[in-house]
Amino acid sequence: MRTVGERIARPDSLDKVQGTAQYVDDLSFGAMLHAAVVRSPLAHGRIKKISTAAARRIRGVHAILTAQDIPGQNLIPMIQPDQPLLAAGEVRHIGEAVALVAAETKSAAEEAARAITVDYEALPAILTLEEGFAKREIVQHWKLRRGRPCDIFSRHDVVVVENTYQTPYQEHAYIETNGMIAVPETDGGITVYGSLQCPFYVQKAVASVTGMKMNHCRVIQTVTGGGFGGKEDAPGLPAAMVALLAQATGRPVKYILSREEDMQVMSKRHPGKIVYRSAASHDGILLAVDVDYFLDAGAYATLSPVVLWRGINHAAGPYRCEHVRVDAYAIRTHKVPCGAFRGFGEPQIVFAHERQMDLLAERIGLDALQFREKNALETGDHTVTEHELKESVGFKDTIIEVRRASNYDRLKLEIEKSNGARISENPPNPKRRGLGWGCCYYGVGLGARGGYLNPAGASVVISSDGSVNVAVGTTEIGQGMITVLSQIAADALGCPLEFIRIMPPDTSRVPDSGPTVASRTTLMSGNAIADACRQIKSRMAAVCADYDFSKIIAEMKSQAVAASARGETHPKSDFHRIVTSSYTPSNRASGHWSEEAWLWKATIQRCVQNMVQLSAHGWAVPPQTTYDGETGLGDVYVTYSYSTNLVEVEVDIETGETTVLKVWTAHDVGKAINPQTGEGQIEGGVVQGIGYGLLEEHVLATDGSKAATRKTGKGGPFPPGRILNDQFSTYIIPTPMDIPEIHSLIVEHAFPYGPFGAKGLGETPIIAVAPALVNAIANATGIQLREIPATPERVWQALKQEASRRTQQSPRRSRKAASAI
Amino acid sequence: MRAFEFHPAHQISDAIRSLDEANGNARICAGGTDLLSRLKDDVDNPERLVCIRTLPDLRYIRNDKDGVRIGALTTLSTIEEDAYVQKQLPLLHQALQVTAAPQIRNQATMGGSICQRPRCWYLRGPFDCLRKGGKECFAVYGENKYHAILGGHLCYIVHPSDSATALVALNASVKIHGSKGEKTVPIEKFFVGPEVNILKENILEDDEIITEVFIPHPAPGCRGAFNKSRERQSYDFALASAAVQCRMSRGVCEDVRVVLGGVAPIPWRSREAEAVVRGKKLSAATIREASEAALRNAKPLTQNDYKVDLTKLLLTKSFQQVSI
Using a CB-CB distance cutoff of 8 angstroms, which residues of chain B are in contact with residue A718? Predict the structure, then answer.
């Protein structure tokens, strides 16, 4: 092991910061056309007529397609077969695609799209989760039943806390919007280039609508400016659109979404509602939880069933809890379909259970940290789904690390003192500091519902100069995959890192390797690479085991020095090429490689001369998982990553503004292949979590105008349900000025099946930040928010309510009321 | 974005002629930070852009005996970095420091900054609202947490410009060139509320451009403060802001201008607050009374009563800063 565990710099970073990386919009093909999409202005309506005649007359327009022009199925294949590519007869959300245009220029395509008139008959729209549930519009219902929670809740010697929590939409806010180019091939196939996370999902979508065989639909990922789940399934839509237009016109077609279009129509984090009841004993043991969990799926199922499933599997948090009842529902509404987002159904329910843990601790009279520690999962414990944890359970160590790094016990006292001093300042200082905890765990990989998507493949090919091409089916989306997989490949082969190249993902190179999601890439692609490398290594060993390389290395060195002294740049023989190629200017000048590199090159030379097959396909299948649909119990994931966050905030009790001062965040990742990329993941997740907890939400146009229309008797066409803040000036995400001091702490409890012991880290950093923030606000001010984001306005409202509650209630009465429940 | 003609102007008269010819179908492009987003959002579709970045001699900050003259094309960052502004006009300096983000301040111009269109999401979305010539203001019964609490009348936009709030407090004036010649208007007369014009935020005619902003030298003993609240710490419009420019003499407020931003369709001068403090010492009680007076006539909509308290706090803070 030489590179694993090292802080290796990302090989793709220079291109990105210099602006030379080629994103999909940087690419161009001969005779390329541009696409535009006609989209529904209504949340729900019947299409009466589509008139395209005027649009067809616009100069430069080559194709206009509606649902009836689709040669294959009008279907984006996901979990449930419900989502058409183009609305046929009925539109079910604002922004749903109705018609496609391809034209010589983008502006001609957009002009034509505006010239297409669609007559709709407006239908009643379901715009809230509550209304959808009342009408039984249920996409999916999962159950979890363990022990006898009813018995616990009926006992008189337990502390019970019950609350209803609300969580908002969250935008992925990837720096690059969705975009695709489809290029028709001479053999009748189509190659799609684009910004995406999951090439095999896109391949299926393209094959579905074009009616072509999958081997004729080739998908290549271009450099991708972030995904966060937003490019998991959703890119199938624009990819299928350009593929259809390319098929119809025989020319390459490009479609890049504007930011506003992307925010209006692409997937987001599901808004959630969680009705959560918890019971604990007076000495601080979490006994039972009873939960109803709702997600607003939007108009189509997409990934909602599995997003919901992950939520239910983690419903009680990383704690022992033997009595559990959870019912989880994904509800269909006439809004934009929600989908995958970093955390995948966990952040919503984790917000609820981590608030509950604080409220229980307060009622019992324990410190929030003590109460968590007392109930924390350890080796030998069972999760909420009765999964026995046999190994790699580093949760307690994450708590210990945060406690140590933050000097928690001292910090807590110091903050109490400083708040006390501020109250007595003249004039009183309105700033209050507070600390809040948030913990979570995360089942790594797709788990028992992942089925055939679970395995992953890899192809490793070594060239005669010793350089190595590695192809995998998962993607680099900014998370650092190229770096980490390069390290795994280098160490598995025993070759220097600079010999490794990770190829751009391409569906024609490796078998379906499932999606780049669920924090599974290091684990699954890493294991597939390790498998391929093992095969090659064993063949190499057969010819190299007893060989003395010192003579061949000496000969190669002297030839290299002589060649560079002659100024030769063109290799004359195979042997010469092996020796001199892939020289970097610096080592060419000095005439030497590292000893390690010489040995690697000599080894490969010997293998080439002995006709050893220096290539292999690797395949990784995760260990068995189980799931019982009736009870929801089983060993649902292969293993879990654990995380603990402590945040320090300062709240202005006059304005309600919250400033995040410090974050300590510890993660049990099994093994950090590259601590630097690991810290990058953690810091990014924390910032995205601050956005979720304090700033971000979509504001949808309500039925306000109906009232106005009734009142004034007039009013123009008005689309209720439309997202009002579809730009970064109105959809507020954190800027560098909003980022606190972040202490990233890595804990390593090795997972024996993982490559070098690694588990996964992509998602845990975001999941428990929002509840930690709201717990810290509660600690600073005494207000108990049940809804995020905790905007200044929401905090101010709660402070006002709290103040009026306090003036109405004497302290003695409030204590009595609390213990009577 | 739709196609348009692009007319770079090399003289002020060229620009005015080009604007005049277009009969209201042209827009002026200086820094473009607001204009481009309106074009991309398809809420403004002019046939012509008259580019005035090419005009010579409109980038300057000049001091003369009366005051400081700022050329309309001077960028906000240039003004922010100017030594005179930093020393003598702290109110303006503070306002610019919390305006947008450094990249935008490098691009945005003095003239463009005060001519920004409102950020109302109905105005900038596919809604046929009053300010676009429609029949209804959707904010009244719709989503209005960022809308006006003062001075709303049929339409409830808020003026987005921080520099405009500061300039009204500094008693600035605006030099305007048009087909009919040149004129100078006190900046308070430049902005107009919806009761005067429901379609526009200022008096600028289709054939006119701003060429200069003039700020008189503050009298000795003048102090200024600007406080702004926003949801995040950079690149965000004001939830509310409060500017106070005050001439103090032996602890007594001799003269004062109080202007509130982010709360009304124009930078909102609060004569009520001014009346309370004028001629008095800025005691805690007087400051409280003035802040209450400033918001006494506030009429919050269904979702923005938060802004009333917030504005009082910001105003209190600004008064406290000038009283020290």
Answer: 127, 138
